[in-house]
Amino acid sequence: MLKALGARAVLCSNSSSSTSVVRKMSSAPASRKFVSVEGSDIHSRSKPDGFRFSLVSYNILAQVYVKSSSFPHSPSSSLKWKPRSNTILEVLKDLGADFFCLQEVDEFESFYKGNMQNLGYSSIYMKRSGQKRDGCGLFYKHDCAELLLEEKIEYNDLVKSIPDGNSSNDDDHTNIQTVHADKQKDVEPKNGSKSNTEDRGDPNDPRVRLKRDCVGIMAAFKFKDPSRHIVIVANTHLYWDPEWADVKLAQAKYLLFRLAKFKTLVSDRYECIPEVIVAGDFNSQPGDTVYQYLVSGNPSSNLMLNCLDESPPIPLCSVYASTRGEPPFTNYTPGFTGTLDYILFSPSDHIKPISFLELPDSDAADIVGGLPNFSYPSDHLPIGAEFEIIKE
């Protein structure tokens, strides 16, 4: 059963407090609310003294990709950076999450870093490799959590695992193999605003296929509550092309491989078992090979690149799928409407989602015609969840 919350408590607080401070959602540019989860099928015990925090993932749409020719359905003035940046900041202020995992962040130094700092956030940024101008940004409220460790992921590192001649190489335990596949038919968008018209080289060479300049961030945080609980947050953006689903699967496997090593490092150094949350734009729909691998470890496809083990080293489940079902879309344009963005977490007896960010219906007045527009500054929608850490 779901219950809408007209206003929500300030997070990073003890849920047993008898006096709660509420923060009303702004009506501009678009009203957003979190919906509480009751009777969820996530098996986790609940205590009244749990510690709560919120996380939002949002492909913010890099300004470098914003062209009228790519978004002819959008009001032209809504695509200009000044009004877009104002709307972006209003959206982020309105959501007020404790953690933001943003993708397609350009203008980091000139806009995001300072403005988010003024709102009480510290940040970690990873620019994409090569000549790409955007990247991933992880923003966290510095009065809520303390950064302990961080690592950055360059998926181009996968290329190092394939020497000349495509013979196998066990360096870094990546063990990427070449397997023939005639077709890759995952149904995903060919978004003209983000596709790259440059010559991508020989598509039959796995070293060429893997060099897509995609990145990610992993960071361990200690909450500034009495429990001092530690959580790992990962933010990533996988490759976009639906014809290169094997590359996305290799990236997903490498992400979890690196994440498992990072979790071991954090566990050993701080003598704990940290919770794990992975968020981002995975450019894959429910049922696609990447999604199936992440949530079940069973990619049912014979793809060209086979990276790492077949089963993920960290079990994950999707917040939305486990509470209310994946939304019908997180990307909404006339050319493509579908779900590409996810918040995943490793289930345990010590963490559970207690609410999720409500998304608009397809007939909502402020998204009819497609995104972006004056209310939604990106072609993607923000997704979010509030988690509760169960104290020992």
UniProtKB/TrEMBL annotation:
GO molecular function ontology, one term from the record: 3'-5'-RNA exonuclease activity
According to the entry, every stretch annotated as the Endonuclease/exonuclease/phosphatase domain falls at: 56-350
Signal peptide span per the entry? none
Q: Which InterPro entries match?
A: CCR4/nocturin_mRNA_transcr, Endo/exonu/phosph_ase_sf, Endo/exonuclease/phosphatase
| Region: Disordered, residue numbers | 164-208
Query: Where, if anywhere, are coiled coils annotated?
Result: none
Under PANTHER family, the record lists: CARBON CATABOLITE REPRESSOR PROTEIN 4 (PTHR12121), CARBON CATABOLITE REPRESSOR PROTEIN 4 HOMOLOG 4-RELATED (PTHR12121:SF68)
By what name is this protein known?
Answer: Carbon catabolite repressor protein 4 homolog 4 isoform X3
Q: Which organism is it from?
A: Vigna radiata var. radiata (Mung bean)
Protein's gene:
LOC106776462
